[in-house]
Amino acid sequence: MPLPPGLDSYELLRSLEPSHDLPGYYHLRIKKDPTGLPLLAPGGAPQSTPIDTSAFFGAAGPIEIEIGCGKGGFLVEYCERHPDLPFLGLEKEPEIAYFAAGRLAKRPHLKHARLVLGDAFHFFRDYVPVNTVQAFHMYFPDPWPKKRHHKNRLMAEPFMEQVRRAALPGARFYWGTDHEEYNAEARALFATLPWLSLEQEDAAPTEGIMTNFEKKYRKQGKPIYRCVLSISKNS
Ligand SMILES: C[S@@+](CC[C@H](N)C(=O)[O-])C[C@H]1O[C@@H](n2cnc3c(N)ncnc32)[C@H](O)[C@@H]1O
User: Fold this and answer.
1) Whole-structure pTM over 0.85, yes or no?
2) Residue 214 CB–ligand 1 contact under 6 Å
3) Which atom of ligand 1 is nearest to the CA of 154?
4) Cβ–Cβ < 8 Å for 28, 122
5) Which residues are catalytic?
6) Most Cβ neighbours (<10 Å): which of 14, 69, 172, 226?
7) Tens digit of pLDDT for each residue in 20-68?
8) CA of 94 relative to ligand 1 center, distance in Å
9) CA distances from 10 to 6, 38, 47 (A)
């Protein structure tokens, strides 16, 4: 979107709205004026509208978040094993998010699982409160393989700064990809972050649960790069 005249940079206003048809499914939307134009945040500052996690998940306590959950293969299996856990899947593609939300809706016993359709960076920055997340799951994020598209990669320092802010001390960060070069770039970034330490190299799928993409890639015989990191808030 071109910058409005007179502005060097701007921030858009967003709202988080429950969907009308599926329980536990929310849309992170850009707010628009009556003519359909996006609303700019006053002063250009990012909005800060942290959710009340107890109210949002219907359960108190530490939460876990899957970033780019796709069709929800991991989310559903993991939540089945931890039915009392407040767990959030974030997915930016509407059809994919709707599919994953449909799978959750068919499992009403997973009372504290939620799905948000929206961009993970903005959701973290504007909606996830500080010191609330005990585990981050990031599996097979879009690799944007062409060099000129690397700027679109979610795994980058601004995103990890939001992870640090949202994390509880001792929180875990689970990372997995099939993309060698993206993995190397991510690992180089992790190594520069003093608050992040490598806990497990060549990790197995978390609790033995493979994601949808992982099943496909393993069948194709592709190498998979996984690790587990832990987050300290003292550095
Ligand atoms: C390659 S797929 C992997 C899906 C799933 N994690 C798996 O392993 O089967 C990456 C997913 O991340 C989603 N995604 C990419 N960027 C995102 C962002 N900024 N916020 C939320 N979801 C995102 C994509 O729409 C896609 O569904």
Assistant:
1) yes
2) yes
3) 19
4) yes
5) 142
6) 69
7) 999 999 999 999 999 999 999 988 889 999 999 999 999 999 999 999 9
8) 11
9) 10, 11, 11
